[in-house]
């Protein structure tokens, strides 16, 4: 019997519909047949040591350790230099999500740049997995149901160190603050902790980001007579401020307190310049056998020990990939739901959990920089003073301004 042209077309369409699930197999659950991770970071500037190429490597190591595929689909890592600028981050995010089919934007250096990128990720129904950006706005007024803030934030870093130093007698402070979102947040969170502990903030000076000459700000701090000069900056800005304070004879007469300090900062400045400084960290390579094992693998390829941001990148990417596998899809909503439902237990965090506001809660560590004579091997820079339980380290949900927490 002869079939009409229309009947043949209908039969063909029917056949495709019937066999298509078999043809697609597992990779049909993955959009575009590939899971693409975009590491948006500072590849050559202020934050390149603490994140940068090391963050890209950490993401690649996670992909390799996962097996290179998820649900039968290959996993790719792409990297871009956002120069810590919001306009560049926005442009890059749109290009990645619209044209290059990136599924998750990870790391994201510079808090203002981070806020710009997560806004677009939400708009495009993609995930932002933040390891570098510090501002608590990410889990407060600017929270989204597609953002996961993994490694640390300004509250956890500034609150712990400021409270302890104030209780130790450093009850008057002056801040030197980078003039953008993260700096403002660090100063505010530290100020709240200082006042709660009975201390006073005598003043603050804000510098452009990035900066190079901090002499005028240091002289203002010196003139204030404050016992502690709080440094609400990071990366090369922090290193330059500390070096110039020593040159002017400001330290050790007035104590310097870093609200954000990384292992790489200590490495670049040396123990002589940084000895005795107290700060909060989210990871240290020499904490235990697990941290040492992973860090030594990282060192073999990067020739530097990892910062908490780089270790957090590995942890966050691995958790993301496990969530895709468990959810059976890379659709952003399903993956975030699975990420929040699954505890984090790895070398970076034990019994970690992602709250409704997107904050990954885990223990933080109050650390002190060793004296030169206390260091027994390369990168042996820190000693643990106190473990700060996650529920104490991060801003409690009861104080959160995140719209996701509002009762319906």
Describe this structure in words.
This protein has 408 residues and is α/β, with parallel strands linked by helices. It folds into two domains: 32-152 and 287-362, Rossmann fold; 155-281 and 365-393, Response regulator (Rossmann fold), CATH 3.40.50. It is 42% helix and 18% strand. The protein is built from 14 helices and 15 strands. It has helices at residues 5-24, 52-66, 86-98, 111-123, 154-167, 181-196, 215-224, 235-247, 263-269, 271-274, 289-302, 308-327, 332-341, 390-393; strands at residues 35-41, 69-70, 73-81, 104-107, 127-130, 147-149, 172-178, 200-207, 228-232, 255-258, 278-281, 353-354, 360-361, 364-369, 382-388. A six-stranded mixed β-sheet has the order 2-3-1-4-5-6, with helices on both faces. A hairpin with a 5-residue loop joins strand 12 (353-354) and strand 13 (360-361). Helix 2 (52-66) packs parallel to helix 12, helix 3 (86-98) runs parallel beside helix 4 (111-123) and helix 5 (154-167) packs parallel to helix 6 (181-196). The radius of gyration is 23 Å and the shape is globular. Residues 1-27 have low confidence and may be disordered.
């Amino acid at each position: 019997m002869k079939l009409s042209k229309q009947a043949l077309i209908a039969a063909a369409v029917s056949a495709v519909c019937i066999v298509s699930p078999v043809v697609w197999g597992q990779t049909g659950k993955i959009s575009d047949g590939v899971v693409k991770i975009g590491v948006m970071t500072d590849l050559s500037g202020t934050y390149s040591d603490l994140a940068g190429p090391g963050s890209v490597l950490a993401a690649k190591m996670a992909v390799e350790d996962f097996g290179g595929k998820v649900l039968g689909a290959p996993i790719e890592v792409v990297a871009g230099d956002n120069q810590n600028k919001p306009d560049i981050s926005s442009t890059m995010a749109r290009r990645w999500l619209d044209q290059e089919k990136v599924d998750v934007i990870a790391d994201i250096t510079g808090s203002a740049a981070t806020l710009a990128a997560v806004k677009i990720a939400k708009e495009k129904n993609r995930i932002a997995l933040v390891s570098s950006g510090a501002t608590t706005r990410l889990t407060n007024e600017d929270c989204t149901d597609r953002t996961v803030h993994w490694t640390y934030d300004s509250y956890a870093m500034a609150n712990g160190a400021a409270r302890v130093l104030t209780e130790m007698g450093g009850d008057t402070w002056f801040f030197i603050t980078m003039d953008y979102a993260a700096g403002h947040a660090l100063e505010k969170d530290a100020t709240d902790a200082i006042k709660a502990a009975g201390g006073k903030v005598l003043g603050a000076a804000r510098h452009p980001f990035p900066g190079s000459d901090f002499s005028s700000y240091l002289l203002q701090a010196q003139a204030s007579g404050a016992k502690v000069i709080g440094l609400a900056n990071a990366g090369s800005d922090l290193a330059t401020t500390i070096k110039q304070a020593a040159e002017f004879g400001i330290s050790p007469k007035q104590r310097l307190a870093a609200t954000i300090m990384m292992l790489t900062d200590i490495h670049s400045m040396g123990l002589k310049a940084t000895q005795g400084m107290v700060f909060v960290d989210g990871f240290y390579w020499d904490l235990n056998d697990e941290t040492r094992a992973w860090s030594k693998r990282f060192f073999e390829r990067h020739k530097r020990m990892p910062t908490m941001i780089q270790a957090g990148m590995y942890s966050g990417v691995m958790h993301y990939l496990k969530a895709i596998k468990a959810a059976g899809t890379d659709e952003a909503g399903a993956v975030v739901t699975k990420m929040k439902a699954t505890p984090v237990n790895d070398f970076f965090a034990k019994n970690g959990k992602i709250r409704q506001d997107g904050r990954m809660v885990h223990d933080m560590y109050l650390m002190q920089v060793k004296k030169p004579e206390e260091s027994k091997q390369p990168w042996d820079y820190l000693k643990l003073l106190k473990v700060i339980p996650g529920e104490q380290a991060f801003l409690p949900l009861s104080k959160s301004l995140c719209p996701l927490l509002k009762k319906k």
